[in-house]
Write a structure and sequence with these properties.
The protein contains no helices and 7 strands. It is mostly beta strands. It has a single domain, classed as Sandwich (Immunoglobulin-like).
């Protein structure tokens, strides 16, 4: 499990593969980053996800590296889930990936 200092920054890395391409080789997708707090034992404290950021992207390859850079200055210490949702707007499919991390005091 990753650990980050409170008030600092944290970075998570994901890679997206097999994105649909149009006849010109371009792909079009939407990325949503979400967070939710967990109990100290890893249970879900609040089942609702908070959307940190959503954006759309057009590119020219069928895969993309995605970096989730977190400003932890407003994130309370404790255990957290991060989730990324990627929607391939051409294929109309959504996939998700996630990671649990701890923000230290």
């Amino acid at each position: 499990m990753r650990r980050f200092d409170s008030g600092g920054r944290g970075a998570l890395h994901f890679e997206v593969y097999n994105l649909g391409q149009d006849e010109f080789g371009q792909m079009n997708y939407e990325v949503t980053y979400q967070l939710r707090s967990l109990t100290d034992t890893g249970g879900v404290q609040d089942p609702r996800w908070t959307i940190a950021l959503t954006y759309r992207h057009v590119g020219s390859t069928d895969w993309e590296p995605i970096y989730f850079d977190l400003d932890l200055s407003t994130v309370p210490p404790g255990l957290w889930d991060a989730r990324i949702l990627v929607t391939d707007l051409r294929a109309e499919q959504t996939v998700e990936a996630g990671e649990t991390f701890r923000v230290l005091w």
